[in-house]
Amino acid sequence: MTSNLPDEQRIVITGIGLTAPNGDSLPEYRQALLDGKSGVVHFETRYMGDVLAGVCNFDELRHQKKKALRRGTRAGSVAIYCSREAVADGSIDWDAVEKSKVGVYIGVTEHGNVETENEVFNISQYQYDTKFWSHHHNPRTVANNPAGEVTLNMGITGPHYTIGAACAAGNMGVIQGAQMLRLGEVDLALAGGVSESIHTFGIFASFNSEGALAHHADPTKASRPFDKNRNGIVCSEGGCIYVLERLPDALKRGAKIIAEIAGHSINSDAYDYILPHPERQAEAMRLALERAGMTANDVDLLSSHATATQLGDIQEVKAIREVFANNSRIRINNTKSYIGHTMGAAGVLELTGNLPSLEDSVVHPTINLDELDPECELPGLVANSPEKVDRVDVIMNNSFGMLGINSVLIVKRFVK
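Above: the chain sequence. Below: its structure as tokens.
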């Protein structure tokens, strides 16, 4: 599918770095998705004891020294690992890059809770004497920390910030990077999302209080979107960063072009703190299609947001049915069934697992779908086994968050 935009406004993905609970590179991650390999395990957390979580196992010392690890944050380490791996994947001569023209845009669900909980626990061992509070606490907890740690590690002097957008944030990091490139603010963007959420007991406790924390005797079966017996969210950590470039710059250096950003949208439900609104979600999908110059019938693969909560899954299904009622070719899947909910990283990690479909035309399934909830029935839902299709040219990625923030990102096969 060709683009109607001038070349300098066309934004392409030329490098990917990631860590997920079931893989630390795109080839490893993709193979796990095709093999039905979950990354959810038992995890011990303060006050809550044994919970189920998606835990990453990337090499923290690959791109950082021990001193930097002690001073920084888990989210910063995830962001640094993914950014460095993305640059390497994009075959970028980093020494030759003008660092003042690089922007870092990273989506987060929340940041600082982990560090604050740790410090409160630490001083509790000393009768809450605040002289034992770390002097590193402030730079660890400022909202721009994960992106800022990337700039410190990589010598980047261009703009950096995080985008706080609940669980829609991963998509929005990519959207922000694309927008800054189109505006000419930067010449290269490191964009995506990260999450360190499992290292705060509070997120588990809060979901548990809502009755929305997943449980299952087998951790690998705990995350089960659309299944009749789903019982909540599996909290997970992870990250994914893209190298984004304007098309002429990518072509000039002979870059491998993985996909092209085709369209995107962001809107708000203005409805409820937690419960999503299907009409607003449908509007977000339609707006992204309009901006991409597409119709619903152009979408080959839809990566769903569904988190395995009872009402949340049903609301998204209503929206999808409304938008894609006449698309008989579409295939729909869900990645949280493998890795749980990676929060700020979810949108971009879930999209990334589907990007190889543009080349191999294989759609990874939703796993743990033993008994489909009739209220979640969707035409084209790929369940439990991969499906080979004729062609995948266009992928839509849904990513929605608390307080009614919705983001939709559409990518397409690059055609010069």
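The chain has a mean pLDDT of 97.
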